[in-house]
Amino acid sequence: MVLHLEPHPASGTHAALFPVGYAANVLLKLRSLVADIDPNPLVIDIARTANAPVPWSAK
Q: What is the C-alpha separation between 11 and 45, in angstroms, rounded?
């Protein structure tokens, strides 16, 4: 299962809607929601997708 989010504006600054700890908060919530399906979900950004242990890429 893949969930695609784009939390940061193109300028690279953090907005009130997507604060600095956004990815960590998403991961914590995701873990609690999908624990029975996948005990180790990933939250990665497009810059790190190539280095992530996943069989797909985001472009």
A: 15
Q: Which two tokens stand for residue 23?
A: 């990815």
50 neighbors 57 (Cβ within 8 angstroms) = yes
pTM of the model: 0.56
Closest CA to 23 of 12, 8, 40, 10: 8
Tally Cβ neighbours within 10 Å of residue 12: 6
pLDDT tens for 34-45 read: 899 988 888 777
What pLDDT was estimated at residue 32?
A: 92
Per the CB < 8 A criterion, the answer to whether 20 and 14 are in contact is: yes
What is the domain partition of the chain in residue ranges? 22-51
